[in-house]
Amino acid sequence: MMIITTGDDPSQATLQRAQQLAVEFAVPFVPRGGQSVAKLAARHGEQDIIILVKNEARLVRPGESAMFFHPSMAFVRAKRLLQGKEDPMITVSRLEPGDTVLDCTAGLGSDSLVFSLAAGSQGQVTALESSAPLAALLTEGLRTYVSNLEAVNAAMRRIRVVQQDHKTYLSQLPDKSVDIVYFDPMFREALHESAAIAPLRGFANDHALDPESISHAIRVARKTVMLKEKWDSPEYERLGFERIRRKNSKIEYGVIHL
How far is residue 207's CA from residue 256's CA, in Å, rounded to a whole number? Predict the structure, then answer.
């Protein structure tokens, strides 16, 4: 479980945002009242605390560095797309404007953002995240983060976040109901502990993908099922994906085109 709070001296708008997020995730909203994060956690018996301040959301565990929502490298990729340059993920997916995408392993939404920008205003990206704290941070971050590019801001606002494990969600979808189903299982063997990836490891589901999930994805997708993994991962073969080789990259994609 977790609690939602604000920074010290929040505005009325920030208070309302925090209360709304608490209702959405069915967790307590706790007024900050000048208390430290450690004191809040001790008093309420919760490890995970979402803190909202103006145009920003943070996820804190006492004794650990706060995790902030930020588009990170997705913003660089988004700028390249807006300049008419290629993004390998979009190319491999065969996405077209107006397509629907199911990102089964959203994390902090980097790939969802790139998909949303490429799909455009007529498309739709649904971002699944099984971790409630990450899903709450992502939900609020996508709603309130402001970049200096309006197209990127609009792409963030279009993403729909759902807090659920992908296997359950996929099993409930009708056949051929989305265009692209995408998996990025967090590199269970880390390439390196980057600033972007390392904080996620304490929250993310690190279980190997289940072949049954892939079977559901194949049933649900109209165009492509995709897997993002390390270049030398055995997961491509285990799960039945065609590996797309990329020169000078430690990250590759696997595809099942339908």
Answer: 21
pLDDT in tens, 30-71: 999 888 888 888 888 777 999 999 888 999 887 777 888 988
Q: What is the spatial distance between Cα 18 and Cα 14, in angstroms, rounded to a whole number?
A: 6
SS3 of 20-84: the string is HHHHHCCCCECCCCCCCHHHHHHHHCCCEEEEEECCEEEEECCCCCCEECCCCHHHHHHHHHHCC
Domain CATH for 144: 3.40.50.150
Residues 135 and 224 in one domain: yes
Give the model confidence (pLDDT) of 166-197 as tens digits.
Answer: 999 999 999 999 999 999 986 444 444 445 44
Q: How many residues does the chain have?
A: 258
Distance from CA of residue 195 to its chain's centroid?
A: 16
